[in-house]
Amino acid sequence: MRALTVSTLLALTAGSSLLLSACGFQPLYAPASIAVLENVTVAVTGGERLSYLTETALMERIGTGGERPGNLTVTLRTAQVPLGVSADGQATRVALNIRARYELRDAAGSVSGLVNERVVFETPREPYALVAARANAEQRAAEVIADAVVRDALTQLHARQRGRPDVTPAPASGGGTGL
């Protein structure tokens, strides 16, 4: 099998770009969608540490309250569910289930949605290691929730700008998330 040259790869990339633009493909992070979300005021409520971490992660992704008259409010609900139990009855793995309900208000109206995420972590027997594992899980959860909220809000904004109805998917049934 012959190796592809750099010029061949460039030609393939350019050709695929032309095909995507011809079919009406528009990236989700197009300027019209992201401009609404950019630099809104962010407020997160829920558990103290997780709310702070999620608010920080959101501000890293969308900016820090610029001149736009919009605000993004997020309400977090968490549940801790043991997944594995050792012979002595201690949980060995724990799932941190997070439900984030958000609302983005701007001059053109508002969009809202609900995102659910789960972060699983090991529960070591040593107390300080358990605190560190929980803190690490909360940091990961904040990053995952921030990404999911931004992605879902951009999807809603994109649908609104194209004149489509609400595109929020129906919540999964029977998941038993403990929330």
Measured as a percent range, the helix fraction is: 40-55%
Structural class, by secondary structure, is: alpha+beta
Q: Give the ordered list of helices and strands.
A: HHEHEEEH
- Strand order in space, largest sheet: 1-2-3-4
CATH architecture: 2-Layer Sandwich
Largest beta-sheet characterization: 4 strands, mixed
CATH fold-level name: Double Stranded RNA Binding Domain
Number of strands: 4
Q: Return Rg in Å.
A: 21 Å
Strand content: 25-35%
* Total discrete domains: 1
Q: Could you give me the name of the CATH homologous superfamily?
A: Lipoprotein like domain
Mean pLDDT: 77
Number of helical elements? 4
Distance between the termini: 54 Å
Explain what this protein looks like in three dimensions.
The N and C termini lie far apart (54 Å). 24% of the residues are buried. About 4% of the residues have low confidence. Strands 1-2-3-4 form a 4-stranded mixed β-sheet, with helices on one face. It has one domain: Double Stranded RNA Binding Domain (2-Layer Sandwich), CATH 3.30.160.150. The protein has 4 helices and 4 strands; from the N terminus they run ααβαβββα. β1, α3 and β2 form a beta-alpha-beta unit. It is globular and about 55 Å long. It is of the alpha+beta class and 179 residues long. The longest helix has 35 residues.
